[in-house]
# Entry
Amino acid sequence: MAHADAIAPAGLWRVSLVEVGASIHPGEWIAPGYPEWVWSPINVVVLRSPEQTVLVDAGPGFTTAWWPFDGIHADTEAALASVGVVPADVDLVVLTHLDYDHAGGLLAGTWPDELGLAFPNARVVVHEDAVAAARAADPDAPDNVGTRLLALLDAGGRLEAVRDGDTVAEGISVRSAPGHRVGHMCVQVAGDDPFVFAADSFHNAEHVVHPEWDNSSDEDGETALATRRRVLGELADSGARTAITHAAGPHAFRVARDRSGGFRAVEVCA
# Structure
């Protein structure tokens, strides 16, 4: 069952963290001593202003069938309906990266040859490095949703390639966070109490305390660890509320420095 948490507004944006599904995976992906198998959520973010609806990531859609373990469920459309959003309402989709559990939900139809776009009115923002990598990739490579998705977006004039620091809507900007994937990025929402969706910069609250444990799925482990530590430092310095794609809840939290110079997750927010 999908869950959604309303989060206190950031600037002009009303923020909802929406669980569109969940997947099972080895517990060792999180930390030593976890059970053999663990369920983790798949979260997206809905940002609403009086004039615009923005979706950050889109869940896996029909690419749930690609999950390598026997256990995943997701329904982005039903989850969005639980917060009063239908696909036609969405004006902008920001994809933090092109992994299928983040980008597959943008696709409708049948893989691989009868595809359409699930959000008929949305332009779609992707980091320029992710765009370049997907365009150069074999469209039939395992788990590659990006190449065909970008072709559809290009054909419809819907794609906007961005880079570090670009503003994508009033008060919403993106920040490069490479390592997990080429072109991975965080989404920042400005306001008196700002909000950051850190996506897959880290995958569990355990990784706030132990960023070195988050090493199961990164494309470039050394860069990802450096990025993770940088992002955690920036979150601690700013005091921004944050959320990530695969943290249980869903919930938002803050990152604080501890006396040893490391980090901890604090203050779960309603």
